[in-house]
Amino acid sequence: MININNPEINVDELMQRIREDVAKRHGQVQPENPTSKSIISNSTATFNHIFYHIDALLRNAESRSITRTKWPDNFNKFPFNLSIIKNFQKIALKILSYIFKDQREVNFNLIRALKESVGLNRQLIEEIASLKAQMDERLNAVDTSIQGMDKRFSAVDTSIQGMDEHLGAVYNRVSEIDNNLDHVDSCMSHLQEYLETMNSRKQLINDHLKTVDAHINTVDEHLESVDTRLEAMNERLGAVNVRVQNLDERDLRNDNYLKNDLVQQKRLITMFLEEARRRLPEPFSQEQLQTFAKEEQHSLDAFYVAFEDQFRGSREVILNKLKTYLPIIQEAKVGTPELPILDVGCGRGEWLELLRESGYKARGIDINRVMLEQCKEKGLEVIESDVIAYLQSLPDASLGAVSGFHIIEHLSFPILMKLIDETRRVLHSGGIAIFETPNPENIIVGACNFYSDPTHLHPLFPPTVKFFFEQLGFLDVKLLRLRENRLEDPLQLIEADNPIASHVNPLIELAKFNFYAPPDFAVIAKKAQ
């Protein structure tokens, strides 16, 4: 509260007192630690104490500068209870407030300015402390960097000393090299003299080589003429080798034929002599004569084996063609000991051999004794018998599959129908029949190749054969046309924009069908379940 007798505040006196107090307190503060961190901490504590004292003085000055609304408490001790006196007090207070109005405004402005100054001083002190801390950190980093640079300079000095030593060694080495170069120069001089001598000799050698080249050219010309003669001789030898190879193959076939025919002839003569020995001095009976007559049908066995080797193809070719039917056997799940496979007219046994290699149980029948002997030599199970007689000897549903490759074209129509009927009888339910024969849809086969075998009776039309099997009780009858791979098709269709294309292309398509139809087909039929 401001005393009525001292309504004004002496600002100069107040600031002087503040300065003295600050100087006094600043002189009393002693740093406990000489480091920069402790100095900053102590300075901050001192300034906080000073600012607290200044704030207290400013609050006191502000409280004394406010407008008075009542008399000081000290004046209340006097008995001024009269209403006149109270009214006088109020008037006096208003007069005083009016008189000191400007002074109060000045006092308030000064106090506000001092407060803002104190706030700015605080901020400046905090910023100075922060800057000092940052400067200390940067100075520490600089000190650390300087120490590292000192170490690096030391290392550089050491490296420079090593380089000086190395340069000294290099200088010594250079001196040695100079000495060596002098020796090399001396050697080069001698070498130059030697090269000049060698060039002279080289010139002589070149002259000699030219003479040799001329002689070699003459020899080359002679050798070319010799090579030409040798090529001509090689061609003649190749032709001779082909002729000899053909003769060897023909002689081998003839040899096989003669051997097989001699075996058959020997067998017939032996049988005839044995029968004659039994009957002598009696004449041959009718039964013996019939036996001799039956043996006559085997007189061409060896001949037909030679014919097959010549016209049907090698065993390797036939084996590759017959592999087409293995998936059919696998799908039918036949060829087991309970449901074996029978190959009628087994011939040389290619199909039986392929079935054995695939793990199927199979046997074959044929009337050609030479072919049967060849099958037996390969360990195949074969029987000599007529196909119809053998099928009739089998019980019903005893086979899993019956096959015949190029056999049905040798049979007359009644025998073919009986073969199909007996095949259906001996097959187990679900068993299959596979018969392959030449395809007359191919005009070359139907008009020419079919008749290369004199034992063929007549071509069989594929839909007709399918009809035979369907009428005799087979189900799911299919025709499989076996196409051969051809490298080139000489019959090409004419471009559609050609005016004759519509007339010629149908003829080309027909010709391609007739000439390039599969040469063989097979009928595959299944017995009803």
Automatic annotation (TrEMBL):
One Pfam family it belongs to: Methyltransf_11
An annotated Gene Ontology molecular function: methyltransferase activity
Annotated TM spans: none
Alphabetized UniProt keyword annotations: Methyltransferase, Transferase
Domain Methyltransferase type: from-to ranges: 342-435
GO biological process, one term: methylation
Database matches in SUPFAM superfamilies: S-adenosyl-L-methionine-dependent methyltransferases, Tropomyosin
Protein known as: SAM-dependent methyltransferase
